[in-house]
Design brief:
This protein is an alpha/beta fold. The protein contains 13 helices and ten strands. 43% of the residues lie in helices and 14% in strands. The two termini are 32 Å apart.
Amino acid sequence: MNDFLAQAKTFLFVPGHRPDRFAKAAASGADVVILDLEDAVGPGHKEAAREHVRTWLEDGNRAIVRINAPGTPWYDGDVAITERALAVMLPKAEDPAQVDAVPGVPVIPLVETAAGIAAAVAICAADAVVRPAFGSVDLASQLGVDHSSHEALRYARSALVIASAAAGKAAPIDGVTTALDDEAALTVDLEHARILGFSGKLCVHPRQVPVANKAFVPTGSEIEWARGVLAPVGDGSVAVAGGQMVDRPVELRARAILDRAGEPFRPAG
């Protein structure tokens, strides 16, 4: 299951107090549904949302559960219903001890504070972590910057990508695009995240899912480049079209591209 979560491209949030939307979300084409007990659910609906999520999971349905943060009145009760979840999304992740305190299920830490970014390597290195997710809106609010600004959050995004790689975990999941009716803005956000090294996207509406799924599939030109790199070339470093040197790191990148495209490299012979 960790392999599935590590490779998933799209993660669709659904408010936990709206069970009428659970099945629709599961049929949306998203790789993973996130049943949300935190930001999407007001204090007066927390208990009901928890019971709806519990029922959905006990009926054999698959989902990640975003619980309320450690230190909130709802944390312990939320954790108690997650044993059947694909994973727990842990908000406001700032300390690996918070990850270690979640029992028995994989964890996706949502890194969305300055303290979380500063501790990102240690957080990602926790044993239960599959990959981190980036909480762009909350971090931007703390920093007093525009959450839609690529420049303002470039350092934080890159820091999380590096932390995840340093810990040997899968590439991070990028934060939400709040412009629900602006596909152009979503596309720009996806391309920016992809360039920085993200390999998944948090979505807040089903219409965002197909755009995000497509964005994280290698393009035709990338696949063609990778095939050329991995064509039989003999021993040592060689040159491919355009005079590019191919050594081991370039070869590994080409293999990763073909793997994401669903055609893993198999040496001739």
